[in-house]
Each structure stands twice: as structure tokens, then as C-alpha cells.
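JOB MANIFEST
job_type = single_chain_structure
chain_count = 1
residues = 506
[input]
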Amino acid sequence: MTTSTVSDRIFRSVNPADRTDTVAEVPLGAADALLDVFRTAKQAHEAWAATPAPVRGRVIAAFGRLVEANAESLAGLVTREVGKPLHESRGEVQEIVDTCDFFAGEGRRLYGQTVPSEMPDKQLFTFRVPVGVVVTITAGNFPVAVPSWYLVPALLCGNTVVWKPAEYAAACADALLSLARAAGVPAGVLEVVHADGPTTFEALSRGLEESLVDKVGFTGSSEVGARIGELCGRHLQSPCLELGGKNPMIVAADADLDLAVQGALFSGYGTAGQRCTSLGTAIVHESVHGEFVSRLGQAVEEAVVGDPRADVLYGPLISEVFAERFEEYLTWIGPHHRVSGSTGRGRISSSNPRKGFVGDPEPGHFYHPVVVDGVRPDDRLFLEETFGPIVGITTYGTLDEAIDLANLPGYGLSSSVYTNDPATAFGVRRGLRAGMLSVNNSTSGAEAHLPFGGNGRSGNGSRQSGIWVLDQFTRWQAVNWDYSGGLQRAQIDTAQIDADPGFRLT
């Protein structure tokens, strides 16, 4: 069950492909209710941390198996609640399974080190210890996969977790919690709270002040992430921040253009462009620019859009909020831009139709895909994240120029380069500030055993997934054990080497 105080404020989560379909109604808790959950998690922490790590690993393994057994139902719920095409929802659920498979084994590792001492009869050790209570706040574009990147390793490491999902993904969160409960995660060790943004921020501030919260994990916008980072910094905490991106794709002169277009189509318009790793700007060499624009424009025009239960490139935008923001992004298109193709612009409807649309667009948040050529370095379309099905294109002459353009917006999450030249690939790797680079692949895509995260406006350098995330959910503890029977003072009593200071080579 979801832990939340009954409230007269009810949030209604609706199907973005059919706004007449109510997926869930959840009460939004007040700040005091969230604090009560923080206290419950604090009380549950000692027993969970004392549970042997291999046992916690078996719980994580059971969780993965239950998700796998219920994969089709969970994927269907993801599609219904956030509008993600069913094939993407299935991939998202598989990401949870992969994450559990990886971290179940970490329950038998969580390695420390034995370190040699400079003193006799003395041993030095290091241990990983859990941080305590983790508060995780996630977005709804990946309503189950991205939360698992926090929940699974945090629980495996012996922490208790309070998860605040996006309100518009409430049903997905409750479903994932029920699977975790069935896998053996005790009440109090993992709790879900539903609340709006201001309430969550108030509760988080008070929870940090009262030492109820030991770690914050946040996935969302750079603006909100900056506020959370500032709040945590005042309490000498370092949050795990996974924020937005303006992810570049460099298309070199020798690139396989068909492959580059496939990558741009998937990363620019998959999930309706609502990924933190979505393609922002294609930076194309001037010698192939015209051909790339032509091919991408044709691919976008021919792409199938519509009912996410069908075989479509993308479905609706997640909610009315994202639809309104996307309409604002469309106003950034200026007279010096060239909009490629004839697919239309704005909301898809009977009066603004899209050829080949699948289903009925009227009850949903469906929008035409947009390709904007002629983007300049001082354009908002170039500098700012645009969460939706819109991709900008600009040109470059030299590789140094391409790298400068890729770094200019100040984000640093994901990137890609299409080339068959190793010197170009490694030159881009050295020059880009992004935390992730794909060579001849799209800007989107992650694997459970590879570090995920960004720099600059995309995050504070923290990483999720793989062994690297363990540093987010554990602290290093150093232990020295002196069994000499006397006081040995390091550095002071260290044995000195008897060298001959007058020795000279002849």
C-alpha cells in the first residue's frame, strides 16, 4: 500500500492518449504526512541495515523475478498512464529486471579493502556502510525504470527509501511498490508518498533540518535540481542529481547518413522527445548537411504517430503541462529557421491532421514532430532543453568547431558522433564535456552496468547504475585495529629507513 495521509486534495492521473480515461486518483499528502513517513523510514533503518547484504540481495533478486513475471501488465500500465509506446514500455520494464539482476550479485560483494599498515601488529580495513534514509524524487517520463536505478541499489546497500514519484505517474509507482512488497521489502523500508512539488520541497527542507533525511536523489529539470542542490548543500549533503540535457549529435563528413538519420529519429522523437537524453541539436558537417536534412525530413514525415498501443514512433505528450510547454517551444522558431517537411505544426487534430496518424487524436495530447534547420548558437532552440518532438540542426566546418558547438549550451548529459574515423571519434571523446558518448549510436540508451549521469547543467557529477552508484548510497568507513599491546602513533613511531645520505653514483 502507499503511505500517504488522507487529504481533500485528490490528484487525478489520466491517460494522455485519452483524457477521458482516469488511470488513478490519489490523495496528495501534506508536509507533515511526508515527515511522518521520513520518521518511519528512520526507525526501520537499523533493522534493514543489520540484515546481511546477501539476504538483501535475495530480496532484490525476488523483486526482479516478480517484475519479469508481471512485465506485460506493468508495461501496459506505463503505456496507459504516460503514453509511451508499448515497445518502449516493455523495454523500460526490462531495464528494471536488468538492474535487479546486476545488483542482486552486489549483495555478495559490496567490497571493502584490507590495507597494509606502516606499523607492526596493526591491520587497516575499509567498509561500505549505508547512508541511512534516502529520499528519491523522480519524473514520470520513465515512471518505473529510472526509479529502479535509485530504489534497487539504495535498498541493496542497506538504506531505507522514501520515494516521491511524479503525480501523473502515480499508478505506476503504486504498482512497483506492490511488487517490491511481494518480493519481501518490508513496510517502512520502502514507502511511496504522493505530493505536489511545493509540499515535497517543504517536507524535504524540514526533514533535512531535523536530520531525518540522509541522502536525496532527484531526477528532473535543471532548475529544480539546482534548488535541491542548494538546499542539500546548506546541510552539508551531496545529492544525486540527474537533470536535463541538450544532447548533441555530431554527424561527420564520413558518416553513414542512413544510420545517422535512424539515430536522430529514435533519439529525437522516441518517447515524443520527452527523455533527458533526447537529441537536442544535430551538428552536421557542411558537406553532408543538405543531404542529412533532406533524409531526416523525409523520415520524420513518414514516421507513424498515434495510439501508443500500436506500432508507432511515439504517442502523446505526457500531460497538459508538457503540452503547454511544447507549444511555447514552437514560438521559439524564428524567421531565419527552416522547418523541414510538410508534417504540420502544433497539436494534431481533425482540423490540423497528420497523414497516417493511428487512432483518434482529439482526446489526447498528440503533437506534430518538427525539424528546425538553420539553428544558430544564440537561439533559445540551441541553448535550452526542449522537452518534446522537436530537433534542431546546425552545421560545422572543423571538428574543433563541432565540439565547441556541442559544449556551448552548458549541459553535459549524453552525446553522440557518427563517423567511421577513429581519430574523429576519439577527438570528440576528448573534447566533449558530456558524461556519456555514443559512437554510431543514438544519444538515448542505457545499460544497467554502465554509469549514467551528466555534468554541468545536467547534474553534479553523480552517477547512477553499475558499481559507480554504490558511492551514492554508501559511505566509506575506515577501521584500524592495533593488537601490539601498546600505543603506536602513526607517522611519529614509524620505522625510519637507515640510508646513506653521502652515497653518490660514480
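[summary]
The first strand starts at residue 10 and ends at 15.
The CA atoms of residues 128 and 476 lie 5 Å apart.
exit_status = 0
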